[in-house]
Amino acid sequence: MLTHEQNDQLSRVEGDAPMGQLLRHWAWFPFALSEQIKPGDAPFRVRLVGSDYVAFRAPDGRIGFVDEACPHRGVSLALARNEGCVLRCIFHGWAIDVTGNVVEAPTHSGDSETFLSRIRSQHYPICEAAGLVWVWLGGDPVGEFPAMPFMELPGENVWMTVTRVDCNWLQGVEASLDSAHVGTLHKSWIPKLAASVRQGATIALSLKAVAPNYDVERKPFGLSATALRELDDGSTYVRTTQYVAPFVNIVPGSEQSEGSIFMGVPIDDTHHLLFFGYFSDKIAFDENTPRVQALIGNGRVDRGNFAPFKGTREDRWGQDRALMDQGHFTGFGDNLLEEDIVVQVSMGPIVDRTREHPSSSDVAIVQARMLLLRALRNRNAGEHPLAPHNRGWRAAEASPVDRVTPADQDWRTSVGA
Ligand code: FES
Ligand SMILES: [Fe+2]
């Protein structure tokens, strides 16, 4: 159980909030699918940890990322002209290049070189990986890009989507770390999901035990959260989700080196971006790949707005009660992720964690909160957020696990943990 103060410390990211400051200096933030930012397009608006930015792509492929407010007198650069390698503010025509430098200030009549050299550059390093554009908001020194198994795969082996979610980021992160909900919330989707994977169906075993035992271990990147489900024949269904702190969860698929990616990236205190995707070293994904189609009930795939939100509290967020009468467990039949998003949003913009009653299946979530509170204390002490566990790691160490361990074997031996 958390105090109100701890709940605020964990959730709030805007302005001077310590968590917002911590996240900026800790993580690279994904903010768009690469394909959402095209040369010549209007500036792409970005809001992260309560601050507003715009991004644009130059004809040579480089991406510029700058504060939304023009450095001259604050006009929104979302209105700016994209003139190839520069954004030009429509108010007085100042031009800013992809590195964040003001390169023209036509309103200034004196020595323009000296004038321009005095304007603080807004340099935000950008990286493209896994089909996403990532930015570093924390200034110098620039943090290391996190090693994760899907980062090393060819483009077609990673399939990413994004959806804006109207609630706090930590609700999203906690939901994807929570393996216990799979067999309940997603019950009606599991047969379709299980049929879409070649090896059939370990995921269907989630239905067999809705109260898994958890084994949670500290790792150099965050946590390994292993849900253990005892099966009738004495074997154990082992599912390990890797929490790459602060906001990435890598959830097992049906085989090794496959899985799902969930990232809950804070827009501000009460909104986040859910980046969801699949990766596999064997499958080249597109919209027609069976396991993509297995998430969709309405046939529509929009990767830039994957699980759009239909309703409000007043209409039960668009829940279809008639569909429930026909046997659907939740009444959300358009998109599996809609179920995740609805439950998170229904908790309110920032859930009050002082009123909850965590059960044994919530141990990974409780551990993640402790890790984040510790990270805040570490920052105050000038240490790495993950100290004392913060050694480097290989991407393979953050691979998720999905296995059935025979009755006579310890699950750790079986998965090589
Ligand atoms: S406010 Fe942008 S050029 Fe003047
Ligand atoms: Fe889910």
Secondary structure layout:
Elements: H1 4-11, H2 18-24, E1 28-33, E2 44-48, E3 51-57, E4 63-67, E5 81-82, E6 86-88, E7 95-97, E8 102-104, H3 112-117, E9 126-129, E10 132-136, E11 158-165, H4 169-177, H5 182-185, H6 190-195, E12 213-219, E13 222-230, E14 236-244, E15 248-252, E16 258-268, E17 271-280, H7 290-293, H8 321-325, H9 336-346, H10 363-380, E18 401-405, H11 411-415
Antiparallel strand pairs: 1-10, 2-3, 3-4, 5-6, 6-7, 7-8, 9-10, 11-17, 12-13, 13-14, 14-15, 14-18, 15-16, 16-17
Helix pairs in contact: 4-9
| Largest pleated sheet | 8 strands, antiparallel
Summarize the helix and strand pattern as letters: HHEEEEEEEEHEEEHHHEEEEEEHHHHEH
Nearest-integer average pLDDT: 92
Class from helix and strand fractions: alpha+beta
Task: Provide structural commentary.
This protein has 417 residues and is of the alpha+beta class. The protein has two domains: 28-136, Rieske Iron-sulfur Protein, CATH 2.102.10.10; 149-415, Naphthalene 1,2-dioxygenase Alpha Subunit, Chain A, domain 1. Helices cover 20% and strands 26% of the residues. The protein has eleven helices and 18 strands. It has helices spanning 4-11, 18-24, 112-117, 169-177, 182-185, 190-195, 290-293, 321-325, 336-346, 363-380, 411-415; strands spanning 28-33, 44-48, 51-57, 63-67, 81-82, 86-88, 95-97, 102-104, 126-129, 132-136, 158-165, 213-219, 222-230, 236-244, 248-252, 258-268, 271-280, 401-405. Strands 11, 12, 13, 14, 15, 16, 17 and 18 form an eight-stranded antiparallel sheet that branches. Strands 5-6-7-8 form a four-stranded antiparallel sheet, with no helix packed on it. The protein starts with a helix and ends with a helix. The mean pLDDT is 92.
